[in-house]
Design goal:
Largest sheet: 8 strands, mixed
Structural class: alpha/beta
Number of strands: 16
Radius of gyration: 21 Å
């Protein structure tokens, strides 16, 4: 099938194929072709350019892009999309002033999600997760990473990852999966025994079914230490899972340094960062990934984006969509938070949520930019005045049409 989009007000993020990320001052540069056309053919980006250069072309579908922008689909490189139930009761507790510890004592937190998930069948879990998958497609997301971590038993961690893999098969989303058994310690184990279960039973079982691309751990005070995290990362690497680490969300936890040491593709959260952590990331292949939705929901400090950019680092932005600390998968809202709370320019936020998140999912060759030969994952905006309107109009739905794998999505 061939789709021609013509008279595009601005074709955004047009780059030569091969660039893996942008960093530092370069993140403020966003290539845009004005008055453009885009030709999609057989599921791939086939051609693009200025309307003045458009020869006569036939297409199965012609879309008029007058006064509209075309973007590569968002790449959301950190989510917990598979979960059994929402946790709005904890939201109410939080409003009434309860601390995290008090909520946990009432049966809340990660262990709350684990209990609910363990009592949910794989089929029901899939149905619920597919509803969220369709939701984020409507928000402009075309590729997503999905973690386990609410199972906390061998059976239930495998169940989560099977559901995540099925989403990739049964939806037009590109899906990468992450094993996050080291998310919390269940009440049935002490930490030493549970780590042994993660390393000696869970990881081999996940690998046997080829269910995870990445290995993750929650490196944080009260959860898993840097030494614990390194053990889990190295165990996963033996089975071909590359590390992605929950690092420095609530405190300077050492997770950044473990990520660098173990060759992580990304370290995610980074609300708590010092100069030592910023320096540790310089000159590495590790993508610092910011999750402003979690900081917004929890009322914590935001990552020091401007300091990290000034140090020449690349930055990625993902949603952290989960039931406990970031119940939102709308990537355009993450861009708004990044601009409003972290003082990132619209150009920086778009680079952070497309080309840089594609790198954080090993998708640089196929996603994240408008480049010939890449997957035809794009969205058209409604009629808007500029790209800055996207983070500016934080409550508006600016997505008009979504095309994934060269097919128009209803």
């Amino acid at each position: 099938m061939k789709i021609l989009i013509k008279n595009i007000k601005g074709l955004v993020q047009v780059r030569d194929k091969g660039l893996k990320w942008v960093a530092g001052a370069d993140m403020d540069n966003l290539p845009i072709i004005s008055n453009a056309y885009l030709l999609l053919k057989e599921g791939l980006i086939h051609d693009y350019g200025s309307m003045t250069d458009l020869a006569s072309l036939s297409a199965d579908e012609v879309i008029d892009g007058t006064d509209r922008f075309v973007f590569p689909s968002f790449v959301d490189s950190h989510t917990h999309l598979v979960f059994a139930a929402s946790r709005e009761e904890e939201f109410v507790y939080k409003i009434k002033g309860m601390s995290y510890e008090e909520i946990a004592a009432k049966g809340g937190g990660i262990l709350n999600s684990a209990k609910k998930l363990q009592n949910t069948s794989e089929e029901e879990l899939f149905d619920k997760a597919m509803t969220r998958a369709h939701e984020i497609i409507g928000f402009g997301t075309g590729a997503v990473e999905i973690k386990s971590g609410y199972g906390l038993t061998v059976k239930d961690e495998l169940k989560m990852l099977r559901v995540a893999r099925k989403i990739g098969i049964n939806s037009p989303l590109t899906v990468k999966t992450t094993f996050l058994g080291a998310h919390a310690v269940p009440k049935t184990h002490d930490k030493k025994d549970y780590l042994n279960l993660v390393i000696n039973e869970m990881i081999p079982a996940v690998a046997e079914e080829n269910l995870a691309d990445y290995i993750d751990a929650f490196c944080e005070k009260g959860f898993f230490t840097p030494d614990d995290t390194e053990r889990v990362m190295e165990a996963g690497k033996k089975y071909g899972m590359r590390p992605k680490i929950h690092a420095n969300q609530l405190s300077i936890s050492g997770g950044v340094q473990v990520g660098v040491k173990t060759g992580a593709i990304s370290v995610d959260h980074l609300e708590a960062m010092g100069q030592e952590e910023i320096d540790a990331l310089k000159g590495t292949e590790v993508m610092p990934t910011l999750l402003p939705g979690a900081a917004f929901y929890l009322g914590t400090s935001y990552p020091p984006a401007r300091e990290m950019l000034a140090a020449g680092l690349p930055l990625a932005i993902a949603s952290d969509y989960n039931p406990g600390s970031a119940p939102c998968g709308k990537m355009s809202f993450m861009l708004s938070l990044a601009s409003i709370k972290m003082k990132m320019t619209p150009e920086e936020t778009i680079n952070a949520s497309t080309i840089n998140t594609a790198y954080a999912m090993n998708l640089s060759d196929s996603h994240g930019t408008i480049s010939k030969g890449k997957v035809a994952n794009v969205f058209l905006t409604k009629k808007i005045p500029s790209i800055a309107y996207i983070p500016y109009a934080f409550g508006s739905n600016i997505i008009d049409e979504v095309i994934l794998e060269g097919r128009i999505i209803d």
